[in-house]
């Protein structure tokens, strides 16, 4: 009887140990499953987990895994995102605002943070939604730092005390877009002034050329065929030179004609023998 009792006791102890070990194994697998569960409820299969290669023992056994919900969530931050990050190579210096703005929009959009500067992401209530406000505040501060880091030192000092990234963005727009527009408008006005003068000069030139008689048709045609029309003064100078050349040619022609007429008169003068005088 003692032997049977000891045998039964040993079997009970063995079964208890097996049950405890099985429960421990089940709990371990459950925890591993929870680690692999993403925020949207999907589970990464164990066979999809990249294993550590023997050549790179320091690499994590499980690669960083993001669900689609994370990638489309503007409050999601990558492990490489930090307040010291500089998004673009050329900082805002006051003269390059629109180029700087375009580069910043592209950089923020690539990180799904554009809503923090264009006003589409609203500030949660700190009283009614403290958790949401804390998440928003963390992302807002990071975007705020990215904007300030992308400005020259003097400009950065002027906006660094704005608490909200959207306010920084709007202040830069109001300040530098107006300055840029003012500078551009002054250039437009100056160009328009020169354009008006050039247009008036062209009209005067055409009136002058079209008013000439047919004597100057050759030089007028040459001027009109030029790739770049001369000024009214240059055209007048060309016409004057042409007129002088015409006058000189006329004088030479008249002189030659007079000389020929005189020579003919000398040759046609009667000789004494022709008149019968001795």
UniProtKB/TrEMBL annotation:
Keyword DNA damage: no
Residue ranges of every copy of the Retrotransposon Copia-like N-terminal domain listed in the record: 78-124
Keyword terms of this UniProt record: Signal
InterPro entries cross-referenced by the UniProt entry: Copia-like_N (IPR029472)
Positions of the UniProt region annotated as Disordered: 258-278
Signal sequence coordinates: 1-23
Pfam families cross-referenced by the UniProt entry: Retrotran_gag_3
The protein's name in its UniProt record: Retrotransposon Copia-like N-terminal domain-containing protein
């Amino acid at each position: 009887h003692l032997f049977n009792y000891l045998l039964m006791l040993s079997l009970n102890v063995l079964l208890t140990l097996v049950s405890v070990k099985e429960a421990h194994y089940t709990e371990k697998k459950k925890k591993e499953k929870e680690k692999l569960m993403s925020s949207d409820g999907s589970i990464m299969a164990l066979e999809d987990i990249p294993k550590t290669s023997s050549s790179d023992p320091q690499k994590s056994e499980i690669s960083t895994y993001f669900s689609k919900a994370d990638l489309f969530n503007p409050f999601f931050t990558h492990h490489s995102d930090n307040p010291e990050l500089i998004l673009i190579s050329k900082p805002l210096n006051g003269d390059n605002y629109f180029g700087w703005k375009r580069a910043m929009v592209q950089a923020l959009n690539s990180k799904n943070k554009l809503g923090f500067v264009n006003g589409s992401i609203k500030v949660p209530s700190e009283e009614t939604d403290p958790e949401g406000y804390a998440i928003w505040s963390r992302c807002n501060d990071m975007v705020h730092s990215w904007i300030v880091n992308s400005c020259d030192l003097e400009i950065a000092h002027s906006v660094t005390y704005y608490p909200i990234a959207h306010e920084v963005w709007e202040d830069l727009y109001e300040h530098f877009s107006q300055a840029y527009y003012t500078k551009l408008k002054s250039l437009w006005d100056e160009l328009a002034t020169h354009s008006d003068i050039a247009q008036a000069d062209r009209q005067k030139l055409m009136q002058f050329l079209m008013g000439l008689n047919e004597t100057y048709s050759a030089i007028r045609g040459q001027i009109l065929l030029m790739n770049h029309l001369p000024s009214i003064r240059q055209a007048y100078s060309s016409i004057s030179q042409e007129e002088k050349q015409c006058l000189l040619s006329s004088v030479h022609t008249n002189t030659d004609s007079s000389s020929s007429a005189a020579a003919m008169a000398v040759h046609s003068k009667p000789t004494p023998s022709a008149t019968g005088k001795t």
